[in-house]
Structure formats: structure tokens, C-alpha cells
Predict the structure.
Amino acid sequence: MEAKERMQIPRQKMPEQDPKARGKNFDEVPFGYSEETAIREAQRCLKCKKPSCVAGCPVEIDIPGFISLIEGGDFIGAARKIKETNALPAVCGRVCPQEEQCEVKCILAKKGDPVAIGRLERFVADYERNAGKVQVPKIAVSTGKKIAVVGSGPAGLTVAGTLRLLGHDVTVFEALHKTGGVLVYGIPEFRLPKAIVEAEVNYLKEMGVKFVTNYVIGKIRTVDTILSEYDAVFLGTGAGLPLFLGVPGENLNGVYSANEYLTRSNLMKAYLFPKYDTPIVRGKNVAVIGGGNVAMDSARTALRLGADNSYIIYRRSLDEMPARKEEVHHAEEEGIQFHILTNPVAFIGDENNWVREIECQKQELGEPDDSGRRRPVPVKGSEFRIPVDTVVVAIGNSPNPLVPATTPGLDTGRKGNIVANEETGLTSRDGVYAGGDIVTGAATVILAMGAGRKAAQAMHAYVMNGKKE
Amino acid sequence: MAKIVKKERLSADLVRMVLEAREIAETRKAGQFIVLRINEQGERIPLTIADADAKTGTVTIIFQEVGKSTRLLGSMGQGDDILDLAGPLGKPTHIENFGTAVCVGGGVGVAPMFPITEALKEAGNKVITIIGSRTKDLLILEDEMKAVSDRLLVMTDDGTYGQKGFVTQALEEIIKSGEKVDIVVAIGPVVMMRAVSEVTRPYKIPTVVSLNSIMVDATGMCGGCRVSVGGKSKFACVEGPEFDGHQVDFKELMMRQKTYMKQEHESLECFLNQALKK
Ligand SMILES: Cc1cc2nc3c(=O)[nH]c(=O)nc-3n(C[C@H](O)[C@H](O)[C@H](O)COP(=O)(O)OP(=O)(O)OC[C@H]3O[C@@H](n4cnc5c(N)ncnc54)[C@H](O)[C@@H]3O)c2cc1C
Ligand code: SF4
Ligand code: FES
């Protein structure tokens, strides 16, 4: 096919549930490509000699490579190609911000729409899984080395998979009763079905990775006691500590952190209450504070739990919102109401301690701040109130302090994050590596996986020849 | 998975269970708790460790059957498995030889009070223990408490056993008698812990209370357990569960505990209806 011909094919749409209908259920929003649309989309790719998209991918997937295989109808081959560098394509195809990574760099994006790399990635991963063609790879002969991984989020899972493949004996310790980290407790079912995360974990189990759940490192055992039994440890404990605004009324009933709201709904399945035992407040007027993915997920969850009004309250403008464009778009379609350039200054409750109103203040954008985004400045006399019965505070998380606090000699940064070498993940302690949100602060799935890959390689070198990298 | 090794009923709605949990039994300290989840549909229930035996590898929990989950748990028996068990969680009680310690346990709160009383005694304190309940049948662990205390006082609201009155009355009498009390630890219903803190406040006696706020993960990840202590928000599961009773906002805690009252009723009704059908 000629390049010209390829460039005439429009970017293929992915069918989705109708916005009205989906606002009432927890099923996944997009349905994914069919084989035909996937091939059609794959035909749009120019298979560039020096593909700029690959440089945009934190784990450098051979993008033109896997897309060529799709074009030729070899979907299983395409899935395996991706898995050479990315163990969780079904997850990444769904939650990666492709519009800031590979797709934004696609040559086609200069003039029109980029190749839908994420949708294709998702398609082949789903195809392989649904066809029952997921193959357990050949594991290298046992090295006799024992590796402990703390935390089963994307960083920990990546380290576990990579090191197991190399023949190490790998055990993952997870504090919660389910494995997957944010993928199971944070990101909702309608964006990432839990069955997919479970399939990925089962795949690692089949490879021989051991999982120990309900095991809080720093409580039942310390990193030091683990080190006496294992040759190296990876810390992937995530950014699990929710931040609050520190304004009056934050401890009123009905005020949640996003972590609690989403954990109740996703991990504990409170949306299926009373079939499942964990309750959640099903508010009619729900306000979510924040502008990231976590805020979008919370507002859309509130809608599905039966809210008449689900608001996003964000202190900057739509342009500054850190959430993925696709998620903001989905939220708007579903009827989430945006109060931008608005900052909550107090929560007001009734005599029974239940939240009833939010006092807000309008903002205007001033000079850029440290983050490069224009700083919101309060507008005097612009106070107004929004009636609410539920509030979800989604203004970010900081690193989980449990492990650093119980590991002497483990250096941490200003925000409590573990300090680790960017290339190797090595911390200030011999044999102790770290990566993912615990090092960078709340970031993305793919960055956590990238850090996991690098750390796994360094850990391999370290346990095999004592080399400190 | 944790096996129920032993189950016994202490009173009409109080149950003692011994669970297989070797590592928790070996590492737990006084004042710490576990979280359990009965089955796949279950919620995460925090329960203080009432006792543990490192030799047999077991931990003991004592709970009152109130809502659906505790009733379901109470309906399980020896040999049954509990799906998930995590622990030990929370900060251990700060134990040292303070001098004279008064341990106050009310209702089912006597259970978590036991390991703390035992540890305070072992650390060399003179331990005066006050336990209380509404009525005689609801009083638990009298013998166990006696064994680890220098003096034991028993109070019942209705006077069916021990002295008639509240635990706070006994505490006030001890203080007024001129006994130099160096520390008071109180565990029980929130109203009781608040009352104890009010008794000791004028005397400036350090008073430790153990807060049972609503929890989900109990690892510091959700903030659902937050309580106001000295005007600051604290996560009870990781920064507690024990706090300075003179600083705790008990009123807020009591109201927060009622967050899911409606849902708890609904859940219990469903459960009882199902039990009826069977
Ligand atoms: C609601 C929400 C939506 C998001 N949406 C997106 C998105 O669309 N796209 C995207 O790329 N990113 C998204 N993110 C961010 C992304 O999920 C994280 O950056 C990523 O999961 C970090 O991975 P991790 O492995 O470092 O940590 P986590 O996923 O946080 O996993 C850490 C694990 O360690 C466990 N742990 C913690 N302490 C201990 C301990 N002491 N002992 C044992 N185990 C412990 C935790 O229980 C947890 O399971 C989202 C995050 C949230 C909260
Ligand atoms: S840059 Fe775009 S067209 Fe080029 S290989 Fe990557 S996806 Fe294909
Ligand atoms: S219970 Fe979630 S932070 Fe304490």
C-alpha cells in the first residue's frame, strides 16, 4: 500500500457504550476494535524507518513492528512482540496516556490524527487472552537466588515477571488481600476490568512467581528481616498516602479521600452492596475536588452510584487539568459538571456532622508556578456555596511511609519518597532497590513499569555477580 | 487463609475465637490489631488482638455480634477458614514502668485491655484494674485480668455483680483515695473513654485511649479512620489506635462512627432474612 493511500484512511473509532446508559453501570466504556477495524487502523501506520513514536514510549515497544504484524493478520504475533518489552499490554492499552507519549510523537499527528497505538495495543492483548493463546514463556534454569518484591502494583509485578523469567525464585508481598496495587483498588472497573488484572497476575503465578497477600512489610516483618532470607529486595509500595486540603470541615461525615471512595467501590465492591458487605455513601450531590485521573474516576464512580449531580471542582482551568484528555471527554459526555477556577475553602456540616455545603472561592490565573502551570489566585468577594451530601478529595497522594519508617539507612527525599538511582533503582541500602510511585511520587502505570524493568536488570546483575550497579 | 482453632461463647453475644496465625502470634505486641475478611463478599473488619500464643502459633480475638459481619463470624465454628487475615497492625502500646497504672476496660473493651494490662504488669508497674459491664452476664475475662493485676475492681451498671456503678466512679475513688496514679489506659465504648478522660483531666494524669474508628485498609492508604487529636487529623490505623485521651475529639468520633448506620441496618436485615429462609 502506498503512503498516500494509507494517509487517506481515517483514524478508526472504537465503539463505546452510550453515555446515558453507561452512567448507570460499571461495565467497561469502550468495546475495543474488531479484527477488521484493527487491520484498517494498522494500515494507517507508515512503518517509518526511524519511528518517532517508539521514542515516546517509556518502555520502547517496537511499535511499527507490532502494527505490521496486525496488518498481516498475525494478532498473536503482535501481542508477543509487545510483550518483549511490556508485560501488561491489556492494562497499558487502556490506561496509558498515549496522547502524551507515543501517539503525540507519531508523524501523522503533525498533519492529522496519529495512529491509534493504544487501541491497537489493547486489541491484540485482548485477542490473545480471549483466544486462550497466552503462553507461559520458557523460564531460565534456576539461579538459586531469592528475590523479594514488596507491593504488587505495576512496578512490583514487572520486577517479579522479569526476574522470574531469568530463573530467580521470586516472592511478592502485598499488604492488601488482592494483588495489583492501584490497578485493583484505584482504577474503576469501567476503565480497567478487574478480570484483566487478575489474568495478568495469574500469568505470573503460572510462571512460578509466589504471592503472599495480607502481608504488611514494616509490620509483620521488616525489610531487614527479609534481607536475611533473600538476596535482594525491590520496594514498589506506591504513593498510598492520601493528601487532604486542610480546610475546616474535612472530617465531616460524607467527606472521603479519593483513595477511600475508590477502594470501597473497586476493591471492596461497595457498588454491589448489600451483596457485598462494604458500604459506601451513595450521594445525590457529589463534589470531587481535583483535576487528575483520580478525580475523573471518582466523579464518574459517583454518577454510577446514583448521583443526580456529580461535580468536579478544580482550581485551575481545563487546559491545566492533569487528567487524560480522553477521560475528561468521557466525563463531560456522561454529564459530569465542571466548576473550574474554583477552590473549596471550607466544608459546612449539619448538627449530625454530615457535610451539607462547600464554600468555594473563584480563582483567576496568575504567573506560572514551579510546575510551569499558571498559578491560581483567589478572586476577592467571589465566595459561593454548592449544596452537597458527599465530597471526594482527590488532590493527590504522597509516598506510603510504612517501609521507609521501618528501614534504617534507607534515604528518603523531601516528600518522603525513597531515593533511588534513576537507571538502576538502587537505594542507599545494599541489595535494596525501589521504583514506581514510591520513588517518583504519584505518576503513571507505564513509568512504574519502566522503573521496574530497569531495577530488575540491575538486580539480576547484583545477585548474579555481586555487582552493585 | 486462617483456620478457626477454637470458638467459645463468653456471653449471649460475645464470642472468643482462637485463630491459626503463626507469624502474627510471633510478632504482635500489646495494643495491636488484625484485619480479617470472612469471605469474598466480606468487608475488612479490624479487631484488636486479645491474646496470642507464639508456641501454638495462634491469636485470640473477642468480638461482640452486632452487625452482619460479626454475626456471620459468630456463626462460624472450629475448623472453618477465614479467607483473609492481616496483622499485626497499628502501633503497639507504649509500655514502660510508669509506677502505678490503672487499666480501665468496659464491655467488650476488656478484651483488648488484657494484653496491655499484662504487658504493664510485666514491665513492673503496680497495676490496678477496673473492669465493668452493663450487667453480670456481660462481664468477661475477670479471672484473666485478676491474674495480671495487683488489684481488680469490678463494676456493673445494674449492680448484679461487683459494685454498682460506672468504671469512672471506681477510678475517681482511687484517685481521691490519694493513690498516686501515673498513667491510665482506657478501652471501651467511646462514651466511657471520654468519661474516663474527663475524670483524669483535672488531675493531669496521662490517659491513653484506644480508638475504634471506621477502617478500610488499615495500612494508612485511605484516611477513612481519621480522628481529630489536639486539633490535628490523625490516621488511627497507623498513627494509633492509641491516643492521648485529653486531646481526642470524642464527639466527632462518635458521629463519624454513625456514617453507615442505615447501610448497616440494611445489611443486617438482608442477612437475617436469608438466615430465616434457610
Ligand atoms: C484512581 C487512579 C487512577 C489512575 N489512573 C491512571 C491512568 O489512567 N493511567 C496511568 O498511567 N496511571 C494512572 N494512575 C497512576 C498509576 O496507577 C500509578 O502511578 C501506578 O499504579 C504506580 O504503580 P506502583 O507499582 O508504583 O504502585 P501501586 O500501584 O500503588 O502499588 C503499590 C502496592 O504496594 C502495596 N504496599 C504498600 N505498602 C506496602 C507494605 N508496607 N507491605 C506490602 N505491600 C505494600 C500496596 O498495597 C499496593 O498494592 C492512577 C492512579 C489512581 C489512584
Ligand atoms: S510514528 Fe506513527 S506512522 Fe510512524 S511508525 Fe509510529 S505509529 Fe507508525
Ligand atoms: S483505615 Fe485506611 S488509612 Fe486507616
Notes: The two ends of chain A are 47 Å apart (CA to CA). The pocket of FE2/S2 (inorganic) cluster (ligand 3) is lined by residues B 215-218, 220-225, 235, 237 (CB under 6 Å).
